[in-house]
Every structure is written in C-alpha cells, then in structure tokens.
Design goal:
2 copies of one chain form a homodimer. With 380 residues, chain A is an alpha/beta fold. Chain A is built from 12 helices and 12 strands. Chain A is 38% helix and 13% strand. Chains A and B meet through helix 2, helix 4, helix 5, helix 8 and helix 9 of A and helix 2, helix 4, helix 5, helix 8 and helix 9 of B.
Chain lengths: 380, 380
C-alpha cells in the first residue's frame, strides 16, 4: 500500500504468470510454449530488420502484418487488430467492448486473466460454471434460457462468481475455445449458437489454442457483427518471446479497439515483432509441420498418463489437463519440481487436483512420464 | 460509432502520431528520431537472441534490463519500472497514480498525449498556461500560491483547459523537461521546487528529451517519495523502433505501476527489446558520441534558421521549435513537404505558426535550410 496509489490500484488482484525460471536444465512444461522454435523465415525476417532502421518508429497501423493476417483468413486489413500479445488485445477488448452496464459472462474455470481485467476496468462479471465434465454448457449463454440456466449454473459454481444474485442479462460474453486450462473444445455449432443468440452484445472467442484441435470462429465473422475472435502467435507459431496477438472482427469492432489503443500507445509492436510476425503468418508450411508434431506428441503423452492411472481431459490444445484419483495435485507438482520438471498447478476450487502439462518434445514427454511414475511410487 | 462500443469509446479523442511515411527519399524531420542508428552492440545483442529461444516467454519482471538501468542511475532494480515505450509507461502512471479526486495539472502547451490519457482513464485535468516566452511558470504549480497563480494562468490560457472554474488543488502534476514541443528546459532547481511543494501528490517529470540538454530529476528520487521520472530509449538511444521506456521512482510508486501493468499485460517487452535495450543502456560511450553529434548539429541548425529570420526557442531537445514572423506555419510546412521534407506542424492555439523540426544529420539540416530559403522566397 502507498498513499500515492489511487483506490483502484489498492484493490487490484494482478495476474500471476507461470514461472519463467532462470535456472538451466529444467524441463519447462508450465506455460504452454511450443517445443519447437519459430520458422527459419521468422529469424531471417528479424535479422533483416536488425539495423539502423531501428532508430525509426514502427508503422503505427501495422499495415503489412494486418495484410498478412487478413490474407490468411480471407478478410481485409480493416477486419484485423494487432497488439502486444493477445493479453493486450484482450485488455483493450474488455475496456472498449465488454465493459457495459450489465456484467460480462465467462466460465468459472477459464483463463484467469479475465477477472483481472474486470478488476482493472471496474467491470462486473458473472462466472458461469462448467459442467461436471468441465465443458462449457451452451444453454447457460442463451438469453432466452438465461435466468433458468444461470440459476442452474449458480448451483454448480463454487464461489467463483463476482456476485451472488442471479443476473439474466449479459453485457458481453467471453470464453476460450478450446477452454483453458481444461483444453476442452466446444464444437463450432455450439459457439455459433452463443453468438447468434446474443446479437446485441459482443461475444469474444479467445482462440489462443485453437490451432491445436478446435474449429475457428473466424469463418463466422462476415455473418455476425457482434463476434470478435482473439488469437496469438505465442503458441502455435512458437513466438511467445515476440509478443504478438491479434483480433478479427467486423470493422466497427476493430475501430473500437483502435480508438482505445490509440489513446494508450501508438506503437505497441516494435519493428522486429512486426517483421517476425508477418513472416510467421506467411510460412504456413512450417506452421503445419510443427503443429502436427505437437499433436502427435500429445496423443502419446495422453496414452502414457492414462496408463499411469491419470484421468486426462480430452485436449484440443498444446497441453493436457490431468488428475490422478489417488494423489493431490499440489503433491504431484512438487514431486515433479523436485525432479526439475515444472508443470502448472492451480490452487483453485474444482481444479486443485489437476496438473496442466504442456506438450513438449517427445523426449520431454518421455521424461515427464518417467518422473510421474517415480513420483507416484515415492509418495504412495 | 457502433452500437457495440461503450460510452467511453465513443467519447475518446485518440492521439495522432507523427506520420510514418512509406515513400522513400523523404527527409524525415517530423517525429524526433535520432539521425544515427543504434549502437552496434545493440544490434549484436538482438542478433544473439534471434533464435529458438523466441518460443519462450520473456522474463515478466525484465530483471536484467532493470538492473542495467538501476546501475546507470545508482538506484536499485526496485526503483525501476519498464514498459512498451514511454507512452505505455505514462499511460500506467495516469491510470495508477495521477487519477485522483482532484484534477491532474499539466502545461497548456505540452505533449499532446496527456489529455488523451485523461480521456481514456476519465481523469479531470487543468491545463496551466506557459508564459509568453513559452516557459513553465514554477509558481503556477505551488499550492501555496495556487489559486492566485492558476487565476493568472487561466487568463493566459486559450481554451486549452478541461474546465473553466478555478481549481486550486491538484491531484497530480505532470510536465516534460525539456517541454515538448517547445524544447525549452526548466532548471533542476525549478523542478525541485514543484516536487517539494507538492509532497502529497505524485509529480511526474517526463524526461523523453532530457539527454539533449536538460538536467535529470533522477538525482532527486531518494529525497522525494512523490517523484516519478519517465524516460525513453526512443530518442537519445536511437531505438524508436524497439519500443522501450522506463520510470524511476521510490519502490512504492514502482509497485503501483507494477500492479496496473500486471493486471493488463504480463510481458510488454519482448525478448529482443529486452536484449537490445540492455545493451543500449550499457554502451555509454556510443550514447555520448551520437548525442554530442546531435547537439553540434542543433547549434548549426539554430544559427541557420535564425539567419533566415526565424525565431528559434532555446532548445534542450533533439528538435527545434521555430517560427518566422512573416509566414504562416502551415504554409511553411506545406512548402517543405512539397520539397520532400517533412516537419511537424501543430494546428493549435498559440503555436500554429511554429514548426517542430527534428535535428537530423548535418547533411539533412543543410537540406532543410536550403529548402526553407527556397520556400520563403517562393511564397513571399
């Protein structure tokens, strides 16, 4: 606390990112980074811009990158917004579009940054409980069924909501597809039902992990003016270290984001990030190859964990979410950590016994499985 | 307008950055970029990080960069906050520290992003008029003299304030030193008087251009817990294209900024920006050499403009702010643009006849002077 902070600062409960350890020789499976590096074309593009031109400001409109993204999705640059990682893009979406008179709705188990944005921008929110299989229940997000559904949801939720009263009207909706940290995907038809049933509010589909097995809602953009799709290059394009995310939507939504962005920071993407991201979007072959390698490793990892007795939720992401019926999640995470393997553990209701394990290389997955076997034996 | 925007978005009046032209062969003297590229050590550091490690998230605490900055100013890393350009740093400072019950005060002629942040974060502000020599009047910022001083200021101001009533109490104060776009520096003793006289509110000194001739307030940080100094690597370190800024202050102020930053974007600086910025801070010799070259060119440019009849305000920045008694600023800017030279012109009260001209290389300054001579003759 400080007398110089305003009231807002004192009340914030900031996001805590996964650990970025400085020690070497760790098997780092805690923040869902891609096990393979970025495309050689990305590295070449960055090298080509590492010169005197760094003295010049970047293009504040990031036109070349937006053109590349637009081309990939058969949209125009006016349908594309870019930012400093999808976290910044999401922040602007909360500030510009999801902050409305009614609360924003999102799942009770989801990306834990959403309630943090609500704190920052003073937005009421309502956490809608996932079902017992940790799936998003479409009916809970349909206003015609709203009051009843949310009552049902409130009975399932374990204290994760911002308010206790039943609110039948959403001011905005956001959910990841696939969801995090569960990895479970919603079928595109379900996603469309939510968008179509809420034509007067913005529905944000956070597709950070979509390339690993879910269907993108980007194909619905021309049909629904209330749809915003948010994506990142951090995961499937192996560029967590470059900080580039983007949003796709009809131009009026993009213009809303632009107005907030241009009232905050004219140039959130530096020259090197612009060059590298453009090359990453354009190199579809490398993207496919490395993505498929991860999918292959995920299958093997899932089978391996199941053979050790783990329950593994069906994953459409580059991680698996798994629990063992006989062990506490915190104990397993600590045991793995002692063996220099770090995974993510969330000490939260309903998911405290799960581990979120990033899909690494086949060698890393094998190390993880060996370590799990040893930990299970040791703490039996 | 869009029905999906909230009220805030509709009311915003976003910042308009200087043009970043895509055509070649322009003499670009409009956005105060350094005429010389960054240190070769910066380019080498970036190259050393352009590899597979881009798949990994950056250090969210940016510790290595903060250590380098702290060392330069004889402070600790706990005194240092870093962000995606000083614009992002300033944005967080407005959101966390300058948003208070009373309005924030800043000069009427100053960095035009300040009122934009006030719009974004819904902060009342009061624009305090510069004097007739375009200098900041210290007395206007001293609360003991407040009511009287602000009344005097209100008589000078030309409609730039947010409110018309006289407000004698500030919730926060921010001003650049040297000021922009005037380039005029305040002596450190004047800056200290403002900080010392306002011990209960945060005073932000925006030192974007300080390395070109003003005295830094960083030396006062241990003495004043209410002082925040904001700086950038965009200007004197030739890294506008890398987007790195920072703030210096006592740890409680830095923690306030951290809380907002960590509620918005965990990793605003990418791996390459962290590496390049650290190398730039550490290469003091290159910094001195290139800075001194700019100072030398500025002297020659000033003399040259004066010999053409321009009034040139005394500059402590890497630009000059100049007007000609016989010509309109807009006409001069258009005439130069027709000769492929771009300078910045602000169509605003009191300064509409000024041009803000970045100090380029000696060759660029000579081109500018030749073009000015031709334009003056042509539109006589």
């Amino acid at each position: 606390m400080s007398r110089f902070w305003n009231k807002l600062v004192s009340t914030l409960d900031p996001y805590v990112p996964g650990e970025q350890p400085r020690i070497q020789n760790l098997v780092k499976l805690n923040t869902n980074e891609h096990p393979y590096g970025p495309s050689p074309k990305v590295l070449a593009a960055i090298a080509a811009h590492t010169n005197d031109s760094l003295r010049l400001y970047p293009d504040p409109t990031a036109l070349v990158l937006r053109q590349a993204i637009a081309k990939r999705f058969d949209l125009t640059p006016e349908h594309v917004f870019v930012g400093n990682g999808s976290d910044e893009v999401l922040g602007h979406a909360f500030h510009a579009l999801l902050k409305q008179d009614a609360p924003v709705w999102f799942p009770d188990i989801t990306y834990s940054f959403y309630p943090v944005y609500c704190g920052l921008y003073q937005i009421d929110f309502r956490a809608i409980a996932l079902d017992d299989q940790f799936k998003i229940c479409v009916n809970d997000y349909l206003p015609a069924l709203g009051a009843e559904a949310v009552l049902g949801s409130a009975n399932r939720a374990l204290g994760a909501g911002a308010s206790s009263s039943v609110v039948a009207r959403a001011g905005g909706i956001i959910f990841p597809n696939p969801n995090a940290p569960t990895g479970c995907a919603s079928p595109l038809a379900d996603v469309e039902r939510i968008i179509a049933a809420n034509p007067n509010i913005v529905v944000v589909v956070d597709e950070a992990y979509v390339d690993f097995g879910a269907q993108t809602a980007a194909t619905l953009i021309e049909k629904y003016p209330n749809l915003l799709v948010v994506r990142t290059l951090s995961k499937s394009h192996s560029l967590a270290g470059l900080r580039v995310g983007y949003a796709l939507g009809q131009p009026e939504l993009i213009q809303g984001l632009d107005r907030v962005k241009n009232s905050f920071n004219s140039y959130p993407l530096d020259n090197l990030a612009l060059a590298g991201a453009t090359a990453a979007i354009e190199d579809e072959e490398y993207f496919e190859t490395t993505r498929n390698a991860v999918l292959h490793s995920r299958d093997a990892l899932t089978v391996g964990l199941q053979s050790l007795g783990f329950e593994v939720l069906p994953s459409a992401a580059n991680f698996v979410f798994a629990r063992h019926p006989d062990y506490k999640g915190a104990d397993l995470a600590a045991g793995l950590r002692a063996k220099n393997i770090i995974v993510r553990h969330f000490n939260k209701p309903r998911i405290a016994d799960f581990l979120r394990i990033t899909v690494g290389t086949d060698a890393q997955c094998a190390q993880l499985l060996t370590a799990c076997r040893e930990v299970l034996t040791a703490i039996k």
